[in-house]
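Aim 2, interim progress: modelling of the WT7-bound target.
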Amino acid sequence: MAEEKAAKTAVLMVEERVFEPPKELVENSNVMQYMKEKGFKTEMEMRAWTSKNYVEFWGEMAKKYATWHKPFDKVLDWQPPYAKWFPGGEISMSYNCLDRHIKTWRKNKVAYIAVGEPVGDVRLFTFWDLYREVNKLANGLKSLGVKEGDRVSIYLPMIPELSIAMLAVTRIGAIHSVVFSGFSAKAYGDRVKDAESVVSITCDGFWRRGKTVPLKTQADEGTADAPSVKHQIVYKRTGQEVPWNKGKDIWWHDLVADQPIHCDPVFVDSEHRLYILYTSGTTGKPKGIEHAVGGYCVGPPQTLHWVFDLKEEDVWWCAADIGWVTGHSYIVYAPLSLGSTGVMYEGSPDFPDFGRWWKIIQDYGVSVLYTSPTAIRMFMKAGPEWCDKYDLTSLRLLGSVGEPINPEAWMWYRKHVGRDELQIMDTWWQTETGTFINSPLPTTPLKPGSCTFPLPGYNAEVMDEAGNIVPYGEGGNVVITEPYPSMLRAFYRDPERYMKTYWNYYWKVHPGWYLAGDQARRDKDGYFFIQGRIDDVLNVAGHRIGNSEVESALVSHPSCAEAAVVGKPDEVKGEVIIAFCVLRSGNEPSDKLKKDLVNHVKSTLGGIASPSELHFVNDVPKTRSGKIMRRIIKSKALGKDVGDTSSLANPEAVDAIPKIV
Ligand code: WT7
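Predicted structure of the complex, ligand included:
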């Protein structure tokens, strides 16, 4: 991180709108029950106490949310930058997600409503179904010689078998490394080789926009030169023809055909690794983020229960992909651990049309929806008529994750999806954190675009480069100051990079402060507003300007659905702002509209933030998890080498970015 970027960031936009939570939501919320039990009078008092006394708090939550095979000796052993949570404890994630439910009435409760992309392809999985399938596969893995601590790579689409595979791997104490099914053969191969996985689990193919993706072929290509892989398990999803590697490949259905439906879970040490998840960040070699079992049995269910207020009868839909941490935590581990019912959708949101999601909500009575700003902006672009067509009255709470949500997108989401009534939980977190860090609770008054405050048991601050907490109203680095159960434990076999990426920055001031890599400001009431990644911050005439504020100003114009801004070097100002805008349907690009948009930014944020150039594009380049790739946009616009674009969701969007120098 460049030194000059550590100065404070200007605050341009101030959000005045406040949305109070409805009384009924507050009174019946899970968090209110905790507050009443403990005698906290206000949410802020409770947040302050639990964050200050986080060790005691997590000790209590660990007993409430997880079932331990052997109780832990103590709550925390913190030797920065390494934490051990619940040392001495022994536990099984698979047991927590399955075995404890099948002993109750939940045995035949629906765990997953699995909606395939082909219309009408729906499968229901109860907890007992999952239990059986997980155990058979776990026995199958054992029969292939997979042992505790071995790595198993999983390359599967959004079908319940992905969740089953993860639970089977962890059941026998092995460690999974899931790779997003939208990644290329090479990306899969690199991750398999880095993890030295002994088994690869994939499928023949899957459905995407009405076509099949030949995943098995990609898996073969990726693992062709990975000698560690002794076996490849292939689930039959589409029935398409596949090449076959004799001696290595085995059909999933053949492997499990004669396996018993019981397999004793292996109870492992609390610090045993649950999984590795590779995250590329924006540059360089992917980092293998390691997460530990014990903390993961506690943080995800606790945060899901409190933030999204899940009740026994809710139908939860986290519309992310399990290939990302959002899905690991909030499609697999947290909801299953809580014994809840969730929707899993295989396909694309626009197949066969933009009504698909809204029809799923109507058909299955989804009550809590969790999605991303990029999806919301896509629906804004398509127009509200798609959600207006369906009955969405089953919804009672909404959520957002992945990027700063532009206040206008927030308003649109509330209005068109949330009937102008529903609260939106804007959760700020990372692959590294495993759970939400900053987020509203159902009791929190909301401000559009704000992820509000650190959750109970978590501690985050906004600091300058010297490690001083910046006053309310100013911007700086987001720093997590205390450990928490679901935090990352290491980078797989790369301790140096682990140290360098997060801990070195403030080490001299305070060992153990974690640099998150995001910029934020707190407003006068202490509400956090994420301003963007540190590396994306603009520097105009000596003023540091968060990209997210300029983009949000553009999106607040009724014609603009999405915007990306980057800095162009300028002799006088250091940098000037270049904007790329995607229009909402029904708007035509014109010079007049360009001027209107620039003037709109000027009047919203002031002249300092107004773009010196604005271009209309159909789409902006994004990662497959929906993050705008400003670095690539900037390189293309400045006529520089854009590097490898194969990891993008829409590489063609790069070609459409005009060269502006
Ligand atoms: C980065 C982490 C966490 C699951 C998905 C992404 C950005 C995430 C928000 C939010 C503003 C957000 C940050 C963060 N981010 N959520 N609610 N508001 N920014 O996981 O791929 O590890 O990305 O996503 O920049 O550091 P990830």
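The pocket of WT7 is lined by residues 279, 324-326, 401-404, 426-431, 451, 516-518, 530, 533, 625 (CB under 6 Å). The longest strand covers residues 560-570.
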